[in-house]
Amino acid sequence: MSTKITKVGVLTSGGDAPGMNAAIRAVVRACAYNELSCVGIFRGYQGLIEGDFEDLDARSVKNIINRGGTFLKSARSKDFRTVEGRQKAYENLKKAEIDALVVIGGDGTFTGASVFKGEHDFPIVGLPGTIDNDINGTDYTIGYDTALNTVVEAIDKIRDTANSHNRLFLVEVMGRNAGDIALNAGIGAGAEEILIPEEDMGRTRLLESLRRSKKSGKTSSIIVVAEGDQIGKNIFDLAKYIEENMSAYEVRVTVLGHIQRGGAPSCYDRVLASRLGVGAIDALMSGQQDVMVGIANRKIVYVPFARAISGQNEIDVELIRVADITSV
Ligand code: F6P
Questions:
Q1: Do 14 and 43 touch, CB atoms closer than 8 A?
Q2: Domain architecture of the chain: domains with CATH
């Protein structure tokens, strides 16, 4: 289907991420620039089903580029997983005369968009907004850089107290299926060990490695654990295991949790979100749909949803090597 677009709906869905406001702002302003109408849809796909819409113009998005969260709110909609829910959403779009959608979110958001597009042949473009950085076809997702900085700042503080007490800290970071936050923040914060879902280290190897670093003269240690890691899934259980097998250390656990999703977006995320938002309207105006706007080698790219949501997250093995060498 390729009809002239005149009115664009924008929504944020799934887990929020710093920079989503900057992305909405860019979409709204790119619409204004190109003389298209823009409608904000609240609470993601749930608001689409419930008709929770509000007209947005260039001034509606003033003073939000610097704000964390998403002023359109977000949700993980169960109703949108049903045929009836998606039918209701389609009817609301037709009623509001919206002829294209920009959805900002992660793989769940794009999966929903793909299914919807398959049923209703409705033009949709996606922007990758998730702290996890786990979307295929884009080097970075909106919110990831800010989350990394939040984690590094937190671990720097934990290191102070770990060092004062000669303790070992397990720090759990987000990433159900993806180790990007753990690996990159771990390197940035100088962690001794980094446990990620993509690579099962095994408890025995972890102990051996900790013993080696203790022997080399280290008096405290930081282990960064991605929440989806195999041996770190129950982080308190892992702490108990280490303490029982390594009397040299007192072990403490910090779960960083949703602090990683909040806060003012970094400059990198604001610029990325602005570029991707403009890219979304460029895509729709040139007749593209069913694609995610991403960034690869510093250039804007258009990636079919099917590719963006396919396969496992791939980790850069070079980073694992760097982590191993620099933590010796
Ligand atoms: O996908 C983003 C994310 O923050 C994951 O890292 C985390 O596992 C999940 O969302 C938490 O989801 P919720 O906020 O719904 O508990």
A1: no
A2: 7-143+265-308 (3.40.50.450), 145-261 (3.40.50.460)
pLDDT single digits (tens) 96-129: 999 999 999 999 999 999 999 999 999 999 999 9
Q: Nearest residue CA, atom 10 of ligand 1?
A: 15
**Residue 146, pLDDT score:** 98
Separation of alpha carbons 152 and 134, rounded Å? 19
**For residues 251 and 187, is the Cβ–Cβ distance under 8 A?**
no
**From residue 76, how far is each of 109, 116, 152, 283 by CA, in Å?**
9, 15, 28, 26
Active site residue 52: no
For the CA atoms of 35, 279, 275, 181, the dihedral, rounded to the nearest 10 degrees, stands at 140
Token pair belonging to 146: 């800010």
Q: For residue 167, what pLDDT is reported?
A: 96
Give me Rg for the CA atoms of the chain.
Answer: 22
Calculate how far, in angstroms, residue 15's C-alpha sits from the geometric centre of ligand 1: 6
